[in-house]
Amino acid sequence: QAGVRGALARRQSKAMLLERQLQEEEEQRQRHAAVRVQAGVRGALARRQSRAMLLKKQLQEEERRASEAAIKLQANVRGTLARRRSRVLLLERQLREAEEQKQRHAAVRMQAGVRGALARRQSKAMLLERQLQEEEEQRQRHAAVRVQAGVRGA
C-alpha cells in the first residue's frame, strides 16, 4: 500500500507539476499575447500621433502659405491703390495747371484788349487834339487874312 500511495503521490505530484507548468506556459503565452497586443496598440497610437503631427505640420504650412499669399495680395492692392491715387493726383495737377494756363491766356488777352482800347483811345485823343490844333491854326490864319484884308482895304 505504501508503494501504491507513493506512486499515487508521485503521479499526483507529477500531475500537479505538469498542471503548474501548463498554467505557467499559459500565463507566459498570455503575457506574450498581452505584450504583442500592447506593442500593437502602442504602434497604432504612435502612427496615429505621427499622422496627427504630420497633419498639424501640413496645416501650419498651408496657413503660412495662405498668410504669405494674403500679404502679397494686400501689398499688390496697396500698390495698385497708390498708383491709382498717384495717377489721380497727377491728373488733378494737370487739370489745375491747364486751368491756370487757360486763365493766364484769358488774362493776357484781356490785358491786350485793354491796352489796345487804351492805345486807340489815346490815338483818337491825339488825332482829335491835332485836328483841334489845325482848326485853331486855320481859324488864326483866317483871322489874320481878314485882319490883313481889312488893313489893306481900308
Automatic annotation (TrEMBL):
InterPro entries: IQ_motif_EF-hand-BS, P-loop_NTPase. Keywords: Coiled coil. The keyword Coiled coil applies. The keyword Iron-sulfur does not apply. It comes from the Eukaryota. Residues 8-145 form a coiled coil. PROSITE patterns: IQ. SUPFAM superfamilies: P-loop containing nucleoside triphosphate hydrolases (SSF52540). SMART domains: IQ. This is Uncharacterized protein. It comes from Cafeteria roenbergensis.
